[in-house]
Amino acid sequence: MQLSRKRRRELKKLRNQAEVLLDHQREVLGHAGHVLGEASRQAKELGNEHVMPRVESAVDQARPFVQKNVACARRAADRVRVAAAPVVAAALAGTVRSLERMEQTEASRQLRGFGEQHGLIEPVKKKRKGGLIALGVGIAAASAVGYALWQAFREDDDMWVSADDF
Q1: What confidence tens digit (pLDDT) does each residue in 55-77 have?
Q2: Looking at the chain, which terminus has fewer C-beta neighbours within 10 angstroms, N or C?
Q3: What was the pLDDT predicted at 165?
Q4: Rounded Cα gap, residues 126 and 37, in angstroms
Q5: Alpha-carbon distance 103 to 60, whole Å?
Q6: Which helix (H) or strand (E) holds 60?
Q7: How many CA within 13 A on the CB side of residue 60?
């Protein structure tokens, strides 16, 4: 496409004007960035000087009420826990028994573990077979000693010398 000289001069002039305008815009944006930075710094200083003291005083005034209400909420939660714990424990224990009757051992074991972990159900005491074995061995030893003493002190034994023989 061939452009006439006049058009080429006009386009060149327009390109130069656009470049000048672009340079001006860059300069303006640089100034705007500087102004924005200074405004940010001033806002921070004003906030530190005027806003922060007011906020701190308001927080200091509200703190006792908030602490009082938090303490009241904690007491209420403790009361609910004390009142609800036996009910929840009974329901949990009933559920565990029902699961055991339905032979759902895995679900029962998991639910029992949850209850034991949170202190709602007492852990199942393991039956100690070692204690029973030790008790049996102790009884057998005591009876053996008793039998040995009985054999040693019986009347029909010739080892005893009566007082009449002297």
Answers
A1: 999 989 999 999 999 999 999 99
A2: N
A3: 58
A4: 73
A5: 60
A6: helix 52-101
A7: 6
In a domain, 50, yes or no: yes
List all residues 6 or more positions away from 124 whose beta carbon is below 8 Å from its beta carbon: 112
pLDDT at 82: 84
Q: How many alpha carbons fall within 13 Å on the CB side of residue 113? A: 6
Distance CA 39, CA 33 (A): 10
Dihedral (C-alpha) 76, 79, 85, 88: value to the nearest 10 degrees? -50
* Number of folded domains that form the chain: 1
**10/23 Cα distance (integer angstroms):** 20
CA angle in degrees (0–180, nearest 5) for 13-19-20: 90
Q: Is the pTM of this model over 0.70?
A: no
- How many residues in total does the chain contain? 166
The low-confidence residues of the chain, meaning pLDDT below 70, are: 127, 155-166
Query: Is 151 a member of any domain?
Result: no
Residue 102, pLDDT score: 85
Residue 138 inside a domain? The answer is no
Domain presence at residue 95: yes
- pLDDT tens-digit map of 88-103: 888 888 888 888 888 8
Cα distance between residue 157 and residue 163, in whole Å: 15
Place of tokens 């053996």: 144
